[in-house]
Amino acid sequence: MPSGAVTLQGPRPANEDCIWQDAGRGLYLVADGIGGPGKGDLASQMLVSLLESTLEAKPQAPLDEVVTEALSLANRKIIAAFLGDPALKGLGSTVTLALVEGNRLRVWHVGDSRAYLLRGRKLTCLTEDHTLARVLEKMGQTPPEKGAHTLVRCLGKDAKCTFDMVDMTLEPGDRLMLCTDGVYRNWPDEDMVKLASGEDLPAIAQQLAQGAIDRGGTDNSSIIMLGWEGESAAAAGESLDDLLKRLSDDVAKAGGFEAVVAAVVNASQALTAGERGFLITVDPAKPWVAFDASGKLHELPPYSRTIAQWVMERQEPVWVANVLDDSRFKDAGSLFNQGPRSVACAPFTANGQVLAVLYIDRPAVSPADPAALMRLVDASSTYLSLALSAWRFEENSRRLESLVDLGKTLSSACGVEETLTLVLKHCMSLTRATEGAIFEGGSQDWLAAIDARGQNLGEFAFDGELIARVLKGSESELVIGGGATTTATAVGLDLSTTICAPIRSSGKTLGVVYLKANSLVTDLTEHDLAMVTELVAFGAPFIESGRKYTQLLQSNEQLSQALSRVQHTLGEAGGDAKTEGSLAELRLEDVITTHIQAKSSGWLKLEGPQGAVGAVGIKDGNLVACTSSLAELTPEQALAELVSWEEGTFRFEAAAVDGTAMPLAQLYKAVEDAPRWRAAKLRVPAQAVPVALMERDIEECPLEQWQILQYVDGKNSVKELAKITQFPLLSVMEAILELQASCTLYIQKA
Question: Which residues contact 342 (CB under 8 A, 6 or more apart)?
Answer without folding.
Answer: 320, 321, 322, 323, 361, 362, 363, 364, 365, 366, 367, 368
